[in-house]
Structure formats: structure tokens, C-alpha cells
Amino acid sequence: MMRGVAIGATESDVRSAFGAPDYDRDGRRWGIPLKTFTFPGAFEITLNRRTHCVVEMKTTSRDYVARAGVRYGATSYYLKKIYGKAERRYMEGRAYYVYENPHATHIRLLLETDVESGSLLSTCITALPLTKEEADAWQLEEDGQDLPAEESLTNLLASQSDIDTSALPEQPEVRLGGLTN
């Protein structure tokens, strides 16, 4: 949690904890429509635009203190001592320690570290896929749950569930040997 806000919280919960945002921006990640609010003190809170719930919280604040005194500049040794051993993963040119929530595996703690010194640069709690392969795997899980077609990640990636082809010209019949009129 950050300032009492957890994954799944509403926009009103976010505004009551963080106040008015400096600005917001709309975007997409793996086809999921998102709205990111930037708050004073170097906090970014991202909501899913469909569910209006928090799906990611990130901070680069030097004042933010996580569990057991983990804060900006903490060493890799201390991070491993507090959160346990994790391999460093490189995503988009940045180094992260990724920790999964054992009770909710889609929620992860991402600790961005300096590539050279290994000191903590940012803290992120996310419920979003980290890679395309992970997004695809989550989609397969969703498909097994019989979600409505418009809710599936594949359709979100395509930005729509049905394509209207009624205005297209009729296709000529194709036969072995070529087209016929």
C-alpha cells in the first residue's frame, strides 16, 4: 500500500489520500486502457479506465518509506534481506527486483535499482502484465473463465470486439484455377 491506498482502490480513495493530482494522462499498456495521475511528491497512480480501480502505484520519492525502512537509495543487500532473494530483471533498459504477492500472483512489487550501484531508485506495486508473453498467458486464463467477448485482452488489443464489415463490397467467388465472374 501507498498512503493507505491498495490495488483495487477507487479514484475517490486515491484523491482522498493524495489530494488533487498535478496532471493526468490517458494511455494503454498491452491494450488495457489506463489513466495515470501524477501527484505532488513524485507519486504516480494508474487506474484501469474500464473498472476505475487502481492497477498500479509508483513512486520515486526520497521521502517514501516502505516496509522495514526501505526507501530511496537502499542497497541491494538490504532489499534482499527485507524482501528475500530475487534475480534482477531488465525491462525497457532498467533493472528491477520483482516480488510476487503469494496470495495474489498478479500483484507484484517492482523495485527499480541503479544498474551500477544497485541502490533503490523507485518502488512500484502493479497488477498489470510485465511482458507480452505474460499478457498472452493472462488472456488464456481469462478465456477459460468465459468472460464476455468485449472483456478479453485479445479484443482490448484489437480495440474492439466486433468489426463491422457491412459496408465492404461483396467478395467474388474463388475457385480452383482462379477467379470467376
Structural key phrases:
10 strands, 181 residues, eight-stranded antiparallel β-sheet, alpha+beta, two-stranded antiparallel ribbon, elongated
Structural features, described:
An eight-stranded antiparallel sheet has the order 1-2-3-4-8-7-6-5. The mean pLDDT is 84. It has helices at 11-18, 76-83, 132-143, 153-158, and strands at residues 23-29, 32-39, 43-48, 54-59, 88-91, 94-101, 104-113, 120-126, 174-175, 178-179. The chain has 181 residues and is an alpha+beta fold. It contains four helices and ten strands.
Q: Averaged pLDDT, please? A: 84
**How many helices?**
4
State the helicity in percent bands. Answer: 10-25%
- Biggest sheet, open or closed, and with what strands and sense? 8 strands, antiparallel
From the alpha-carbon coordinates, what is the Rg to the nearest angstrom?
Answer: 21 Å
Strand-residue proportion? 25-35%
User: What is the helix/strand order?
Assistant: HEEEEHEEEEHHEE
- How far apart lie the N and C ends? 66 Å
The total count of strands amounts to 10
Low-confidence stretches: none
Class derived from helix and strand content: alpha+beta
